[in-house]
Specification:
This protein is α/β, with parallel strands linked by helices and 459 residues long. Helix content is 17%, strand content 32%. The structure holds uridine-diphosphate-N-acetylglucosamine and calcium ion. The site of uridine-diphosphate-N-acetylglucosamine has 27 residues, from β1, α3 and β10.
Length: 459
C-alpha cells in the first residue's frame, strides 16, 4: 500500500522486565519481539516503516540494520501521543498511518488488513477487543447507540468506565492529515501527565468525524509484553500457532505442546515429530521424515524419509533421502550426507561429506573429511584433523573399510577399496585395494604374575 506508513512505538523502558536489555530486544521464538512486529508490518507492504525508539535506543537500532526502516528517536517518553507526534515528520501527508507497538508481537497481517479496510471508509479505525479482565487497558466508551465516544485510560476512569469490558488494543489506523491536526492539540492534563494518543478519539468525535472499530481475528493477538510472565505466555501462544500450522500442513506432532520452532520450518507430508524437539533457523523436512524425541535441529535440510533418532543435535547439516542419524549423534556445521547414509550413536561429524550408502555407526569423530560411497567406518575411528595449529583433510575413497579404533592422521588419503586393519594409526596414504595396518606386535609373557596387595603393617 503505497500511501501507508506504519509507526512502531518502541521507546518504552520496559521497567517490569527488570532487564538491562531493552524490552523490544527480548527473545520470542529465537528473534527479538520487535523483529516480529516489523515482519508483520512488512506483510502490509507499506511505503515506510517508522520505528520510534528511546530507551536503549542505539542498541535497538544496531539490532536492525535493515535499510527499509526509518528511525525516530524519542529522547523523553512523554506518552504515546508524543511518540507518534515525533514520528509524523517521517509520514507521507494524505496517506494512512497504522500505529503498532514493538512489544505486541502476535498481531496477524489479516487482522491489520481488516482494520485498514475499515479505515478506508472513515478517517479513524481502532482495533478493540472484548476481554474478561480489562485491568490495565484503556476502556472503549460508547454511547447508547453503540457509537464510539472516547477511550478512557484506566487511571483516569470512573467506576462505571472501569467496568467496561471492551478495551483499546492500542492499534489504530488513521488518516495522516487528521492525525497531524489532532496531535497538535493534545495536552497532558491527565492522571499520568502524559500525551495520550488515545485522546484523538474524543477529538474526532467532537469534530463529528466517524470512528470505526474492528476486533482481532484471534482473541489473544493483541496481547503485549510487560514482564517475563507475559513473555513466556506469548511464547507459548506463538508456539501453539506454529504447531497448528505444521499439523495443518500434514505433519504429525506427538505432542503439539512439546515442539518449539524458533525460525522457519518447511515440512513435507507425513513428517512425524516426537516430543521435546527444538527446530531453529531454517529447517526443511522432506516427505516422511521422522524426528525422534529430544532432538535439536538448527539450519537443517533433510531429504525424504530421513530418520533422526532420539537425542541428536544437528547444526547446518544437509542430508539426502533415506539417511538415518542417531540416537545420540552430533552433526556439526558443514556436514553433508548423501542418500542412505547411516550415522549411529555417539558419532560426531564436522565439515564432512559422506557418500551414498556409507556407514559410520558407532563412537567416531570424522571432521574435515571427504568420505566416498559405500564406505564402512568402524567403531571408534578418529580423524586427527588438527595438529594444534592447522586443520587438515582426510580423504577416504569409495568402498574403503576402516577397521575399528583407527586414527587417521590428516592430511591423509585412504584409497578406493582399501582396508585398514583395526587399531591402526595411519600417518601415510593407504593405497587402493590393499590392506594397510600399523600395529605394535602382540607379545605374550608366560609366567607373569599380577602385582599383589601388600598386607597391612608391611612397609
Ligand atoms: C496504551 C494505551 C491504552 C491501551 C494499551 C494497550 C495510551 C495512552 N494508552 O496504554 O489505551 O489499552 O496501550 O496496551 O496510548 N511508548 C513510546 N513512547 C512513549 C510512551 C509509550 O514509544 O512515550 C510505547 C511503549 O514502548 C509501548 C507502547 O508505546 O510499546 C504503549 O505504551 P504503554 O506505556 O505501555 O501504554 P499503556 O499505558 O499500556
Ligand atoms: Ca503496555
Amino acid at each position: 500500500m503505497e500511501d501507508l506508513t506504519v509507526i512502531v512505538l518502541a521507546a518504552g523502558q520496559g521497567t517490569r522486565m527488570r532487564s538491562s536489555l531493552p524490552k523490544v530486544l527480548h527473545d520470542l521464538a529465537g528473534r527479538p519481539l520487535l523483529a516480529h512486529v516489523i515482519d508483520t508490518a512488512r506483510c502490509l507492504e507499506p511505503a515506510r516503516i517508522v520505528v520510534v525508539h528511546g530507551h536503549g535506543g542505539e542498541q535497538v537500532r544496531a539490532a536492525f540494520p535493515d535499510p527499509d526502516l526509518t528511525w525516530v528517536h524519542q529522547a523523553r517518553q512523554l506518552g504515546t501521543g508524543h511518540a507518534v507526534a515525533e514520528a509524523m515528520a517521517a509520514v507521507r501527508p494524505k496517506g494512512t498511518v497504522l500505529v503498532l507497538y514493538g512489544d505486541v508481537p502476535l498481531l496477524r497481517p489479516e487482522t491489520l488488513r481488516d482494520l485498514l479496510d475499515a479505515q478506508k471508509r472513515v478517517p479513524l479505525a481502532l482495533l478493540t477487543a472484548r476481554v474478561n479482565d480489562p485491568t490495565g487497558y484503556g476502556r472503549i466508551v460508547r454511547d447508547e447507540h453503540g457509537s464510539l465516544r472516547a477511550i478512557v485510560e484506566e487511571k483516569d476512569a470512573n467506576d462505571a468506565e472501569r467496568a467496561i469490558d471492551e478495551i483499546n488494543t492500542g492499534v489504530m489506523a488513521v488518516d495522516a492529515d487528521h492525525l497531524s491536526r489532532w496531535l497538535a492539540d493534545l495536552d497532558n492534563d491527565n492522571a499520568q501527565g502524559e500525551y495520550y494518543l488515545t485522546d484523538v478519539v474524543a477529538m474526532a468525535v467532537g469534530e463529528g468525524v466517524a470512528v470505526a472499530s474492528v476486533h482481532p481475528r484471534e482473541p489473544d493477538e493483541f496481547l503485549g509484553v510487560n514482564d517475563r510472565r507475559q513473555l513466556a505466555h506469548i511464547e507459548r501462544l506463538y508456539q501453539k500457532r506454529q504447531s497448528h500450522a505444521l499439523m495443518a500442513a500434514g505433519v504429525t506432532l506427538r505432542d503439539p505442546a512439546r515442539l518449539d520452532v524458533r525460525g522457519r520450518v518447511q515440512a513435507g507430508r507425513d513428517v512425524v515429530i516426537d516430543v521435546d524437539v527444538v527446530l531453529e533457523g531454517d529447517v526443511s523436512l522432506g516427505e516422511g521424515v521422522q524426528i525422534g524425541p529430544f532432538c535439536h535441529l538448527k539450519n537443517v535440510t533433510l531429504g525424504p524419509d530421513c530418520r533422526v533418532l532420539s537425542h541428536s543435535v544437528l547444526e547446518s547439516v544437509t542430508a539426502e533421502a533415506g539417511v538415518t542419524i542417531g540416537p545420540f549423534a552430533r552433526l556439526r556445521p558443514g556436514t553433508y550426507l548423501a542418500s542412505e547414509v547411516k550415522v549411529g550413536n555417539f558419532v560426531e561429524l564436522k565439515n564432512a561429506q559422506v557418500g551414498e550408502g556409507s556407514k559410520i555407526n558407532h563412537l567416531s569423530y570424522v571432521g574435515d573429511a571427504d568420505v566416498g560411497r559405500d564406505v564402512n567406518i568402524g567403531a571408534g575411528t578418529i580423524t586427527c584433523n588438527y595438529d594444534g595449529a592447522n586443520k587438515h583433510r582426510t580423504v577416504i575413497g569409495d568402498g574403503a573399510f576402516i577397521g575399528s579404533d583407527t586414527q587417521l592422521v590428516a592430511p591423509v588419503i585412504v584409497g578406493e577399496g582399501a582396508t585398514i586393519g583395526a587399531g591402526s594409526t595411519i600417518t601415510r596414504d593407504a593405497p587402493p585395494h590393499a590392506l594397510t595396518l600399523s600395529r605394535v606386535p602382540q607379545e605374550t609373557r608366560e609366567g607373569w604374575r599380577r602385582p599383589q596387595k601388600r598386607n597391612k603393617g608391611e612397609a
